[in-house]
Design brief:
It is built from 14 helices and 7 strands. The protein has helices at residues 7-15, 26-37, 51-63, 74-83, 102-113, 127-140, 150-159, 170-178, 199-211, 224-234, 264-281, 294-297, 311-316, 318-336; strands spanning 189-194, 215-220, 238-244, 250-258, 261-262, 284-291, 303-308. Strands 1, 2, 3, 4, 5, 6 and 7 form a 7-stranded mixed beta sheet that branches. The longest helix is centred in the C-terminal third of the chain and has 19 residues, at 318-336. The N and C termini lie far apart (47 Å).
């Protein structure tokens, strides 16, 4: 097993990005080595980014809920680093920035299967995971420090139900959080995010939400991680991200899927939106898409990203878009009650 990557190695790897077909060198060799350890060997010559490496990267991306471009950009590189961790490789605890990795996701899944709710299975060691670890330690008779070390891992493995022998508590708690007893938008806090390419859309949707009695939190920021952190800190009940794709002619509704887990409440909202928005906007139906985009993975509330093509057409119908989203949110809340 490869030793955990150091911060210096992470910076060096990130500095070479993106890596794509035609690239050569030590960074490509490191990439190929990491892929091989994940049973995705590339048969290209060592250090040469050719067809086999491109396909191995695309296969990895598909398995992680990422866009299968075959290009190793920062999100894919970070996912590769995270994939190298196994539960027990390192101490896991709440820190800043928060620890991420497959070991965290395995910890979350084990806790959830035992009835200790870590929130969604997202591979991020945040406050919900800390509380779940503390609750497990308290019930197991361990020191309650919120740190997952050797003793905690050993007891998690000892108490773990057999494969298929327990359902995860995370989807159940997610549904309960949406079911607040309010069947209208009034009193709900909805975050509306955009990265600078669709400010008019965010403004129009925020206005429509306020007309229905909701509190709208507008987030105009090119960094999805900052958007997610702001929405989390504000205690938003729901997040709607608006993203324009000038090279597309379709409408796609994306929700969080990753680590063999998906946000069931986000998916149900995405399906409602996708049923009506392509017709409203006169765009091709791109369907729903479960994906581990940062904005969907890092938000703690149900979240969708509307990926909209043909911007000149969408801008002309921005009021209809806002009304359609608000109607879908209202129906979604009523169905969740």
């Amino acid at each position: 097993m490869r030793p955990p990557i150091t911060s210096t190695q992470l910076e060096q790897g990130s500095a070479a990005l993106p890596l794509r077909t035609g690239d050569r060198g030590s960074a490509v060799l490191d990439l190929q080595s990491r892929l091989a350890e994940l049973d995705l060997p590339a048969t290209d010559p060592p250090g040469v980014y050719a067809a086999a490496t491109t396909e191995a990267v695309a296969t990895f991306q598909r398995g992680r809920g990422l866009a299968a471009s075959g290009v190793c950009e920062p999100v894919t590189w970070s996912a590769l680093v995270e994939a190298g961790y196994r539960l027990g490789d390192r101490l896991l605890y709440r820190q800043a920035p928060m620890l991420r990795g497959d070991d965290v996701a395995e910890l979350q899944r084990r806790l959830s299967a035992l009835g200790f709710d870590p929130g969604r299975i997202d591979g991020i060691f945040g406050d919900d995971t800390t509380e779940a670890v503390q609750n497990f330690q308290r019930n197991a008779g361990l020191p309650v420090d919120g740190t997952c070390g050797r003793e905690t891992v050993a007891d998690l493995r000892r108490f773990q139900p057999p494969v298929g022998g327990a359902d995860l508590v995370s989807p159940i708690s997610e549904r309960l959080r949406v079911h607040s007893g309010k069947v209208t938008l009034a009193g709900h806090r909805v975050a509306v995010g955009e990265d600078g390419g669709f400010m008019v859309g965010a403004l129009s949707l925020s206005r429509a939400l306020r007309e229905r009695g909701a509190t709208a939190l507008e987030l105009h920021d090119p960094d999805p991680t900052r958007q997610a952190a702001t929405a989390n800190a504000a205690g938003a009940d729901c997040f709607v991200s608006l993203r324009i794709h000038p090279d597309r002619a379709s409408c796609t509704s994306a929700y969080y899927r990753g680590f063999h887990y998906e946000s069931v409440t986000s998916r149900s909202l995405a399906e409602r939106l996708q049923a009506v928005l392509p017709g409203i906007l006169d765009l091709d139906d791109g369907g729903t898409c479960g994906i581990a985009l940062p904005i969907l993975r890092e938000t703690r509330m149900p979240a969708v990203e509307l990926q909209l093509g043909r911007p000149t057409v969408v801008v002309q119908r921005v009021s209809a878009l806002a009304r359609g989203v608000v109607d879908c949110l209202t129906d979604w809340l009523a169905a969740s009650a």
